[in-house]
Automatic annotation (TrEMBL):
Keywords for this protein: Monooxygenase, Oxidoreductase
Pfam families to which the protein is assigned, alphabetical: FAD_binding_3
Leader peptide range in chain numbering: none
UniProt GO molecular function: FAD binding; monooxygenase activity
Domain FAD-binding: 5-319
Protein known as: Monooxygenase (Secreted protein)
Organism: Streptomyces sparsogenes DSM 40356
Superkingdom, taxonomy of origin: Bacteria
Amino acid sequence: MTGTAVVVGAGVGGLATAIGLRRAGWAVSILERRTALERYGTAFGIHPTAQAALDRLGVGEAVARRAVPYRGARIRTPRGKVMANLPLERIERKAGRPELLVSRPYLIDALVAELEAFRDVPIELGRTVSDVEALAADHDLVVGADGIHSAVRTARFGARSGPRHVGTVAWIGIADFDSGIHGETWGRGRFFGMTPVEPGRTNWYATVPEATTADELRGFFEGWHDPVPRILAETDPATWIRYEMRHLFPALPAFTHGGKVALVGDAAHAMTPNLGQGACTAILDAEALARAVAEHGPAGLPASLRAYDSERRRSAQRVAFGSRSLHRFMTTEHTRLRNALVRMVPS
């Protein structure tokens, strides 16, 4: 082993970081405040760049086996009129592979299976981190992968950057039938999305100004084109997940601190989900950090963290800014101008 690292957080970013560091020869342990890994069902979009990062981490093939390609998606009006195509075919032509969608449980399981193959990367569940300085004293590297409420970020960067509400509520769920159409429907101050997640099932998500009950949510989409009302009518509200839309603001001045602490994923750049890049950026962070650490070794850790910050911070923050800007555009009340602009986008 060449160094010791502790990863705080066992989500996508934390597990992927642990894999990368262990493959680089480091001794790695993971601390997770929850008593079980989050395996609730929703679909992650995996862009070809993130797929390539998963390949380098050794788990790309395992993820691809349980993923489905995302093609033929469109942006529609509530009446069902097509305004534009999502640029999925262009992405596939450029990258040589399609955008993939994979359910969260499958992605988590693939990452955990890779870690278990090492046999020496413990995941300690139910562990709340309150003393980051003690972790830093006991390890060569501390990685904060502990989400938008990151204890590691707060300990090293203070509370200036933190969760900020964007004024809307998101709901997500899985319908046990194929919707037949995929993409997003944009209304006034709200939108509804449908993607494949596995054969015979549809991942759906909705964003509204406010809704606290299933009936209220259904009311927001009453009269919209098929199958939007059907999805809400035929899926069990007990399986729906509701959360306040938030992002990290203001942007951090660095993703690293003190030559031995690094942040990845939502801890570094939590974003709204409008670009579908949250999991992708976490994976890219993880692979870039592990690659930099492998290149410089324990003695060169400060240089490793500088290289990681240089590679990832501006890129990830641009994605976060773009996603937040798209959220404003999608949920505007000025739909006539917005729709006209959307129709001008080349297919």
